[in-house]
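quick q for whoever's on today - can somebody do inverse folding on this one?? i tried earlier but teh output was garbage lol. tokens:
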């Protein structure tokens, strides 16, 4: 439930409502809006009727029901959009953020070459998998900690913040030590113990939509992170399984527009995994931006035919430069060189 305080509610009246919400067995989440304070009463085992009775408390404008099962991620609780700050790169701040890099980190040289090229083309962040969730146990599984070190070096070299996937609870600490943003992959979207652990990490999270997850399930997965204390969450639509086999997945751009309506969290789109086809990356990137995406995550490899994973959906370095031009993203100028 949401308690909307009136515009002129005093600090004392607000504190009283917070105390009553706690006494009734709920958590109180205070959202300070520009004009008034909104207090969410969140939880399942509290005394609801007593919260409803707060309508009569001084300074309270109205008490309303949150109609969705997700609460803290809902725009009903928070109208203002969340801006996720990844070491200076702002996701959801109005500019389209482009995250680019290889599916897997394969070597220092491969990563460094990609990082420098995507930076020169105007990318805002670097991606690269160190721990890879592969469908087959015989496929390349990632270089692990060694890849994390390469990512950090590439970040130091280019200034780009890095995002990389964390697959298991056991790796959360080491990944958080190296990465600026931690990715929860599609296959792990409903790994609730991983989500609970990530909720306690002081780093932003990129939460991909599961291949078979509904929008409600996706937002409830994000709710785990916010409920556990991590409000720095960006969502990523990466395609879902449908009857269509012509593309690797079906990039659900309606979900991007819908989630922007339902939630205050920023949303990115991943046309690489969403289509599996290099030729569709540019049109679907433009379509995602038109649907309201706050950013894109694009797989880029210096030589896609030699990539150890996801070559067919990876752009080469000149291809990425063309995409960035098509998107109207100017390369960042090096101030020192100017
Ligand atoms: C990835 O980003 O490389 C990846 C494995 O993505 P997803 O979890 O969306 O399949
Ligand atoms: Mn990939």
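ok took a stab at it. sequence:
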């Amino acid at each position: 439930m949401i308690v909307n305080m009136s515009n002129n509610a005093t600090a004392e009246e607000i504190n009283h409502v917070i105390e009553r919400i706690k006494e009734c067995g709920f958590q109180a989440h205070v959202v300070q809006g520009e004009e008034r304070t909104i207090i969410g009463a969140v939880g399942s085992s509290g005394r609801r009727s007593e919260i409803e009775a707060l309508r009569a408390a001084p300074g309270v404008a109205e008490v309303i029901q949150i109609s969705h099962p997700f609460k803290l991620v809902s725009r009903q609780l928070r109208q203002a959009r969340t801006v996720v700050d990844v070491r200076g790169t702002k996701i959801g701040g109005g500019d389209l953020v482009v995250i680019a890099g290889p599916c897997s980190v394969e070597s220092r040289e491969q990563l460094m070459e990609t990082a420098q090229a995507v930076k020169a083309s105007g990318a805002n962040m670097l991606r690269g998998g160190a721990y890879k969730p592969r469908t087959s146990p015989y496929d390349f599984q990632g270089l692990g900690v060694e890849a994390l070190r390469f990512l950090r070096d590439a970040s130091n070299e280019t200034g780009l913040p890095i995002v990389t996937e964390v697959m298991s609870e056991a790796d959360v600490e080491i990944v958080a030590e190296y990465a600026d943003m931690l990715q929860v992959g599609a296959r792990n979207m409903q790994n609730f113990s991983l989500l609970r652990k990530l909720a306690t990490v002081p780093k932003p999270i990129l939460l991909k939509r599961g291949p078979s997850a509904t929008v409600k399930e996706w937002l409830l997965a994000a709710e785990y992170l916010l409920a556990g204390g991590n409000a720095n969450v960006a969502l990523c639509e990466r395609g879902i399984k449908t009857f269509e086999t012509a593309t690797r997945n079906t990039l659900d751009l309606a979900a991007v527009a819908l989630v922007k309506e339902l939630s205050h969290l920023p949303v990115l789109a991943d046309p690489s995994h969403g289509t599996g086809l290099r030729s569709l990356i540019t049109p679907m990137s433009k379509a995602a931006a038109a649907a309201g995406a706050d950013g894109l995550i694009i797989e880029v490899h210096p030589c896609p035919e030699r990539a150890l994973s996801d070559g067919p959906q990876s752009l080469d370095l000149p291809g990425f430069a063309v995409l960035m031009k098509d998107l109207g993203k100017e390369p960042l100028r090096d101030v020192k060189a100017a």
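fwiw The mean pLDDT is 96. also The first helix runs from residue 11 to 23. so keep that in mind when u check it
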